[in-house]
Amino acid sequence: MKKIGFLKDTYGRIKADEITHLTNEPLEKELLLKISRYLSNGKRVMSFMNMSIDDETGEMICPDQILTDGTWMWPSYIFHFIERFPNINIDADFVEYVKERNFKLSHFDLEKARADCYKEMS
């Protein structure tokens, strides 16, 4: 399973200064919005009993979860950082992948995706 959006984490606190993958050429706003919507439609495959916290602001971001579309997996906090850093560099392969799918999740085997995710995270 391919990964997107995982940032360094110190005991559940996400450090903004550890976001090293920013770009001087941000995606256009409409494309970023479509990608964010696509990511928000991902299916939950893992949940943890803690919250992600933005280390800079102290803001509780969201419950820690891993979402997937069956091919890619991403953390639930990615939405916070896409909103906060519109110049975040999103993997070009992922951008092409979601464009090819017209920004719509396809049907996939959730149990297989969950098993694949567990393998990746262990």
Textual characterization of the structure:
- It is a single chain.
- With 122 residues, the protein is α/β, with parallel strands linked by helices.
- The protein has one domain (2-121).
- Helix content is 33%, strand content 25%.
- It is built from four helices and six strands.
- It has helices at residues 29-40, 78-84, 92-100, 110-121, and strands at residues 2-3, 9-10, 13-14, 43-54, 60-68, 72-75.
- A hairpin with a 5-residue loop joins strand 4 (43-54) and strand 5 (60-68).
- The protein is globular.
- The relative contact order is 0.25.
Which SSEs are present, and which pair or pack?
Layout: E1 2-3, E2 9-10, E3 13-14, H1 29-40, E4 43-54, E5 60-68, E6 72-75, H2 78-84, H3 92-100, H4 110-121
Parallel strand pairs: 1-6, 3-4
Antiparallel strand pairs: 2-3, 4-5, 5-6
Defining key terms:
single chain; 122 residues; alpha/beta; 6-stranded mixed β-sheet; 4 helices; globular
Count up the helices: 4
Roughly how many Å is the radius of gyration? 14 Å
- Looking across the biggest beta sheet, what order are the strands in? 1-6-5-4-3-2
Judging from the principal axes of the Cα atoms, what is the shape?
A: globular
Helix-strand sequence:
EEEHEEEHHH
Low-confidence runs of at least 5 consecutive residues: 13-18
How far apart are the termini?
Answer: 13 Å
Which percent band covers the strand fraction?
Answer: 25-35%
Identify the quaternary structure here.
Answer: single chain
Mean pLDDT: 84
